[in-house]
What does this fold into?
Amino acid sequence: MTIVWIGAGNLATQLGMALARAGHETLQVFSRTEASASALAARLRCPFTCRAEEVVGGADVYLFSVKDSALEELVARVAPRAGHALCLHTAGSMPMDVFRGHAAHYGVWYPMQTFSRTVDVGFREIPAFIEASDGPSLALVRRLAASVSERVMEMSTEKRRHLHLAAVFACNFTNHCYALSAEILEKEGIPFEVMLPLIDETARKVHRLAPRDAQTGPAVRYDHNVIGRQAALLGEENGLRELYEQMSRSIHRLALREEKEGGKKK
It folds into this structure.
C-alpha cells in the first residue's frame, strides 16, 4: 500500500520503518517541525513537507500520528485531501469519530507499545488494536496491521480508552518510578545499573504470575517500622513521601482484597 504520514515522532518513525520493511511505500511525510519531517523522510526515502496544504493526494492510507491536542485540527485540515483513501490515527485515547465529517473512510490503528526514535522494536509481537468506520475499511486496516503484527485485534473506542489508561499505569508510571529510583541512588553515588536485575526479574515474573500474586515488599503486610523509616528518608519537600505512602497503602489494600477474595473461594 502507499502511505502518507501525518506526524514524524517516535511512533511514526518506528512504525514507518516497519511498514517499509513489509513492502509498503511512503509517498510523503508531513510534520510541522522540519527537522523531524526531513529525518523520517530520509529514512523512508520520500519527500516531506511542513505545510498542511501541500500534503499530496492519491495515497491508499493517511496515517495520523501526532499528539492528541493537535489531532483534531490536523484532521480537519488534512483528511479532506485524502479523498476516498483510508484515514487512520494511532492514538490510544482519541475517538475514531474525530474523522467524522472530514474523511470518507476512517479508523484507528493503536499499536500498544512504548516507542523511541532510536530504539528499534519487533512489531511482530506488538498488539495492534484496530477499529474502522465500515466493513471494507476494517478489512483494509486489518490487512495493513497484519503485515507487521501477528496480534491484530478489533477494539471499540471506549474499550481502547481503558486499555490506554491501563498502559499508562503499566508503562509510563512504572518508568517514572525508575526515574525516581535513579534520583535516590544518584544522591548516594550508587549507579542505577544495580537495579537492572531486579527490574528484569520483576518483569519476567508477571509472565508467570498474576501481578497481585507477584507483589512483594513491606507494603504487602504493611510493615509500619520499615515504611516509617523509608518515608522519613524522603522528607517533605518534593512530594515523594506522600507518593510513597499512597503507593504503600494502595499495595496493602490490594493485598487485603486478594486475601479476602481468596478466603471466599475456599
